[in-house]
Each structure stands twice: as C-alpha cells, then as structure tokens.
Amino acid sequence: FTPDGEFLVLAFDNGKIEIISTETFKLVKSFIGASNDVASVDIKGQFLMVLGADDKINVFDMKQNFKKLYAATFTGSGEFVIANKEGFYYASKGAINSIAFKKGTNVYPFEQFDLYYNRPDKAAENLVELGIIDSVLTKAYYYAYLKRIKKMGFNEDELSGDFNLPEVTINTNDIPVTVNKSNISIVVDAKDEIYNLDRINIWINDIPVFGSKGKSIKNLNTKQVSESVNLLLTNGDNKVQVSVTNVKGAESLKKTFKVNSNIIEEEPTLYLVSIGVSKYLNSEYDLKYAAKDAQDLSNYSKTLMDKYQKIETIELINENVTTENVIKVKEQLLKTKVSDVVIVFFAGHGLIDKNLDYYLATHDIDFKNPAKNGLSYENLEGLLDGIPARKKLLLMDSCHSGEIDKDELELINTEKSENKNITNRGTITASNKSKKMGLKNSFELMQLLFADLKRGTGAMVISSASGVEFAYEGEQWKNGVFTYALLEGLKTGNCDLNGDGNILVSEIREYVIDKVSELTNGNQNPTSRKENLEYDFSAW
User: Taking the model in full, what pTM does it have?
Assistant: First the structure.
C-alpha cells in the first residue's frame, strides 16, 4: 500500500505493475515495472521502486502519475549505473565494463557510444527537479562533459546516438574461438557510401596493432576496400576490435571478437628504458636525485632474472639525455616481441611552456624556452607507439607530469620550498584561474567521471604529480618521492595489494598514488595520464 493508503500496488511475475484504488477497488493504472519478473517492490515516500529479476531497479514518481524517473543497477564494490528513459547514463568508472549497447542483433562495448550517452548531467535531471541533487552539481557535470568531448575533438552539435558512419565487416564465421597457434588471418571489408576511406584501425586488448594512427589507406582514393591482415596473438584471451575511419574523421562501429590462444610462449624479455637528469647545461637547475632514480630502478630491475628470459636495460643519464638520443631508443624497441614487457621511466625537471605544452627537461634544454631542445611529452610516449610489445608502461617522476586543462590554467612563478632538504622538479607552474562551483575545476571532474576513450599507444601512463603540482625529491627519501614509493612498494611487496604474489600495473598505480600523497601530506598526488582498462599486466 502507498503511505497515504489510497492505492494498492500489485506486482506480477511478467514485470507488470497494477495500481488499484483502495476506495473503489478499480484499476487506476497499469504499466511495465520491470523488463522481466519482479523480484521485489518497495515504496519510500513518493517513490515506487521495482527490482527486476535482472537486478535492475526502476524508480517511479507516484506524485507524477507514476512517471518513470530513472533505472539503476549496482555491479559490486559500490559501482553503479543510473540511466534515464532516453538512455543517458551516469556510471562510476568501475562499472563501465558492465555496460553494452545493442543495435539490432549486434552488441557493442561501452566505448562505442559512451561519448554520446555518458551524460551524468542528463541522467540526473529528474533528481534535480525533486531536490535530491543540487543543480550546481549537474551544471558542473555538464561542463565536465563539454571538456571531455573537446578533448576527443568534437563539439556538442557533431554528436548523435546514431552517426552516418562507414561500415566494416570481418569474416568472424571463419575465425575459431580457440587456437593452438600464435597468429590468425582475418579479412577486413570496409565501405562508405559518401566519402573515401582513410584508415583501418585494429586493436588487440586495446593495444593498436598499427600504432595510434592506424593503417592509412588514404592513398587508395576509394570508398571500398578489402584487406587481409595477419594478427599476432598472445597466450590467453585476445580481444580484437576492428574499425574503419573515413576522410572526414567518422569512425565505423567497431567489430569485436575474442580468440583464446593456447600457445606456450617463451619467457618474455623486459626492456627498461631508464632516463634520469640531475646535471644540466644550465647548472642553476641541477637536481640531486633524478639520475640516481633512473639508476636505482635499473639496478632493481636487473634482479628479476627469475621472471624474464632476458633483461635489456637502456640507460640514459645526465649529458646523454638529449631529444635525439631518446628518440633513437625506439629503434631498439621496434625489435621487441608481442609478449615482451617495455617500461619507460623518466626522472628530472618537468616544464610547461607559455602555450601550456609539457616538456621533459633534457640535459641541454633552454629553461626559459622549453621547446628549444626539450623532450615533448608526445615524443616520450611515442617510444611506445606501434612497437610489437603489448605490455607497455610509462612512468614519469617530474613536475606537472599529469595532464592539464589549458582552458582553465594560468602560469605563475614557483615558490622555493621552505625545507632546504626538499627540492621540486620544476621552474614554472600553472594554477587554476578559478574554482567555480566548489570544485577544483571541470577538467579534474572530467577525469573523475569519465574513462579516457583515446587509447593512444595502449600504454598505461602513471605520472608522479598532477598537472598543477610539483614532484619532490629530498634527503629523507634519497630519491624522488615517487621513485622512493615505487621502489619501496616493489622491494617490500607492499605493491601486491591482493597478496597473490603477482604485482599488476593497476596495483602499482594504486599504491604509489596513496603512498606519495601520504609522504607529502597531500601536496603531491600521482595520476594516470592514460589508462588501459582492458590489459592489466605484471611488470616487475
């Protein structure tokens, strides 16, 4: 019964809800409360909540003639999804792998339409009307959404839930679910009714097979193409996704299939590229521990011979750290195998130029003009783009190494630490222009709300500090604090958060984020510049 006793709510096994007047005992309203059997019904105040056998909760407002407000579900560990009747949803980042889209008979993973339908501001609109959520918060959600689509290269008017897209098909009927070999061949057929095709994109476990830019077919000047592609597999599940992009930048719906490979792989090789700069051409900016950071990480990695067939250490220290020498390292990384592990580490100054572009300080950098001789972030991450190895990790122990919001920041001069035993690894920093709506800024809210759909190189990128923070080194750590936390966690096993004897990249990330924040009293907070939600692996 409703709290006022006016209605009796009846729920049926087929999901049907009937509302009966207690005064006349006549049917007042009938509607579908769940997509299958009803498991439970509850009434809180003016809200009728119907739990279906599929674990989805539908919420109706009895004061608005039982209008459906939203649907919600929970996927364990507090992860949740809330969606309105148009399909716009608000989801915690840990729940996104539980979301899929169905179009006809095809099912697509969350990232295919997430850019359009992941709208916390829209999903929460009804809650604002009822006073459950503050309108200021949903406005912040909207600004965060705008930041997100701008980062992805779109504006709001360009997005829709059903694009006019090129099409791609693959010969999935000919592809076995399980193979006992290290490769398979697929045939990719692509076409576009209006525009020429530009590139074919293939990912295996979110790692781009042809690099972040895909395989260009632009020179064919064609609207239709058929390509046979040989794919190298790794042991275990291989999630393969294929798409095609036309010359206007529109990407087809991704075709996805999985192949399990039972091959017995030879022991992988660990490639560690360890870069550290303490001594600079301009000695005014010398550091004490950056070069030591790189050497300490190399020395630790060399103790792991029981885990790897071979350990290749590529070490660049002080005067050897030039943009040319770093870029040249890729020649060696192109010799890796798909099962190998590649870790790139950088310790030294991190600088932001007047355009808010990020540079890692080489030995001969111009500190007043970082673009001169400086190593751009894109060039550093580029070492991992398109190489055969699929287990890739980039670590940066430098100031401002997290991503920044160019629209909301301004440059300010640094302040020297009052503690003479602590040094920061930067010379100029950026500060938020405003702190509207009680939030740090909509950029940081965007990072909290949304998964990064730009897969890029497929590497996990862990930064020692946010884009507006310093990274510190000091006597008490005898390292950069980020490197100290990393090595301490690895050597003691504290990074192994679930205690299974296998330290995953996700565990390293979680551990150093908490440890560095603890050691610096919240003044330095590592972040993930890039995430690979599909491909977690053991690095050390």
Answer: 0.70
